[in-house]
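User:
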Amino acid sequence: MSDPMRELLLGFDARAGLDASPSDWSPERREQYLLRRDVRRPLSVDEAVWTRRDSALGEGLDVHIETPKWTDLSTALAATPADETLVAITVWQGLSEPAMSPRGEVRPSALDAGWERLGWDVVDGLFPSALTNCGYREDDRRAWRAEWEGLLNEHHLFRELPAAFGFRDARARDVPALATLVVMGLYRVR
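Assistant: Predicted structure:
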């Protein structure tokens, strides 16, 4: 029997605007955590990578989101200032995937075709991002970059879903402590 996969909408969150300065990404941090170092602003489900609207995170703080802030789009739209980015966060679910579910009823319950997919992240639960917040051993960085950086978009997220799942499997083998890696989507609502 095959493992039916589906994309589940978890909810909505407000993040720093896409035009905001990425001042917390020093050259040293880029070298340690990014496969594609030319990315202007890395985006992620992980709040330590892409700051949540109500957070005052700085470099080196180990704080991450627990769940998307809102499950109701109307509430999220009303609460998000125009200079912030409202995102929908999804997770790929299947029989062999770790179970994740929204905090409550999500309205709307499915993705809107008008939302812009920013890309696919690979995270351990909802944090940390195995793609942008777990670091790469210095002696392995070159090999990781050679294999994966060409598959990342301008936000340091995967363009294609199969690449995200391939990276998830490779990263889980490389860092066994990341036992519950899931593939999550980020969509710009507004």
